[in-house]
Amino acid sequence: MRAMLELENVFANIGQYQILQGVTLSVPEHHVTVLLGRNGAGKSTTLKSIMVYVRKRTGQIRLNGSSLLKLAPYQVSRMGISYLPEEGHIFANLTVQENLRLSVRAHDKNHADRIERALDIFPDLRQLWKRPGSHLSGGQKQMLAMASLLVASQ
C-alpha cells in the first residue's frame, strides 16, 4: 500500500522543550488515520510539524515522496494539507459566504466550484449562507472552519 504522508524519525522542539522524540508515521492513500493520545503526548505538535509551523525539528516529512521540510506553511497548504486548531478560526463579523470567499486564493478562476464542493460536504452551511459567524453554534463554526480549509487547499 502506497504511503501518501510519511514521517520518519521526527524530533521537534517548542522553545527549550523537546516534544517529539523519533515519531514515525505512515498514512496510506485513501485511508483515514487518527492520532490518539493523552494531553501533552505530541498530537498537535506532530500536526504542526507537518504544516511546518514548528521549525525546530529533524527527521523526514514527505507528502507523495516530496519533502515538506524546507517549505513554507502556505506551500504545504497548496499541496492539500491543512491544520485546524481545536478552537477553529473564522471571522465572526463576516457571513458564512464572506468567510468562504475569503478562503479563495487570488486569481483562482475555479473558486465557485471549490466553494460548491465544500458546501456539498457541509450542506448545513447553505442554509446559514448569510448568517454572521458570531451567530453560529460551536459545531457550525467548526464546519465553516473546515469548509474554509477545504476551499483554500483544493
In a nutshell, what does this entry contain?
With 154 residues, the chain is of the alpha+beta class.
Detailed description of the structure:
- The protein is an alpha+beta fold.
- It is 34% helix and 21% strand.
- The protein has helices at residues 43-50, 73-78, 96-102, 111-121, 124-127, 138-153; strands at residues 3-14, 17-28, 57-63, 66-67.
- The chain has a four-stranded antiparallel beta sheet with strand order 2-1-3-4, covered by helices on one side.
- A hairpin with a 2-residue loop joins strand 3 (57-63) and strand 4.
Write the layout of secondary structure elements.
Blueprint: E1 3-14, E2 17-28, H1 43-50, E3 57-63, E4 66-67, H2 73-78, H3 96-102, H4 111-121, H5 124-127, H6 138-153
Antiparallel strand pairs: 1-2, 1-3, 3-4
Helix pairs in contact: 3-6, 4-6
